[in-house]
Specification:
This protein is an alpha/beta fold. The strands form 2 sheets. A 10-stranded mixed beta sheet has the order 1-2-3-4-6-5-7-8-11-12, sandwiched between helices. Strands 9-10 form a two-stranded antiparallel ribbon.
Length: 312
């Protein structure tokens, strides 16, 4: 398959992959770290709706959004899914290069390359990044938080960190990785091997490793830094005025009823919906229902405004 590359005035390098979807990869540099994303243009036969930026959770990659991004494009949305620094195909940073400030700066820069203010859609870590970016920089026309909120169940959050800290010596086979995921998330259908190839890489020793920087664990183990982050995230809810949706997994051990009530109390423009029989990883647990709830929210958004419009 032939590809063509171009560099625009913002330094973005786009590699057209071709095919009926028009999928393109997008690279840009922030502080010496190369960030990689997939751009899904709106389908030509669909009425244009605007743009959306999709941010994955810690330990995941942009590929977790593939099916949702495809459906967004089918419904007229231009979708940009990003690999966070230290994840997937994006570069790894120095140990002190994974702060919330870095993540917010990455998102803010990417969003400002788009023609219109996008909808910010973030799962877990991506949701917290989107929340703070919107509160401090007002870059989005709407906000979607996927099973994340300022008030979390600490046991569930600690369980995520514990899982990430396991198997640092990799897996002998992809079947072993699938078994580890099933043990962590027993209500979910066993992971498909082809899907796991997108989240693990085979090293020279023949073993399979999660495709994220182990240095991320140092930040998550810093209790003082985490306290500061959570205070900042809680404060961010006071400064969000755009339409906001919290999509919660019914079986989540990270978000509970108190989490939802707190968010709705502090963001007057927020609503919530629960996806049955899903856990913290709602997007993968039931992508069809998740995306239907997302599209319904997007369908009811106010019309897009532009920066030159005084009402924007």
């Amino acid at each position: 398959m032939n590809s063509q590359s171009r560099t625009d005035t913002n330094g973005l390098i786009t590699d057209r992959l071709g095919g009926s979807t028009g999928l393109a990869t997008v690279d840009y540099n922030r502080g010496g770290v190369t960030l990689v994303g997939d751009h899904w243009p709106a389908r030509g036969d669909a009425e244009p709706q605007g743009g959306a930026v999709l941010l994955h959770g810690v330990g995941q990659t942009r590929k977790s959004w593939q099916h949702t991004a495809e459906r967004l494009a089918h419904h007229g949305w231009s979708a940009l899914s990003l690999d966070a620094r230290g994840h997937g195909d994006s570069g790894w940073a120095a140990t002190d290069g994974y702060t919330l400030d870095h993540l917010v700066d990455d998102l803010t820069h990417a969003a400002r390359q788009l023609h219109d203010r996008p909808v910010l859609i973030g799962a877990s870590m991506g949701g917290l990044t989107a929340l703070v970016a919107q509160a401090e920089h007002r870059i989005g026309r709407a906000l979607v938080l996927v099973d994340i909120a300022p008030h979390m169940n600490t046991n569930g959050a600690e369980r995520i960190v514990e899982f990430m800290g396991q198997h640092r010596d990799g897996f002998a086979t992809l079947d072993d990785a699938a078994a580890a995921l099933t043990a962590y998330n027993p209500h979910r259908q066993r992971a498909r091997i082809e899907g796991l190839r997108k989240n693990l890489r085979r090293h020279r020793d023949g073993r399979w490793y999660w495709h994220w920087d182990p240095q991320l664990l140092h930040l998550m183990a810093d209790s003082t830094a985490l306290t500061d982050i959570m205070n900042r995230i809680s404060d961010a809810t006071q400064h969000v005025a755009v339409p906001t949706l919290l999509i919660r997994g019914e079986l989540s051990d990270v978000i509970d009823d108190h989490s939802v009530e707190h968010l709705l109390e502090h963001i007057p423009t927020a609503t919530s919906t629960t996806v049955a029989n899903t856990g913290h990883m709602v997007v993968g647990d039931d992508n069809d229902v998740f995306t239907e709830r997302l599209l319904d929210f997007l369908h009811h958004l106010p019309a897009q405004t532009h920066p030159e419009d005084p009402s924007a």
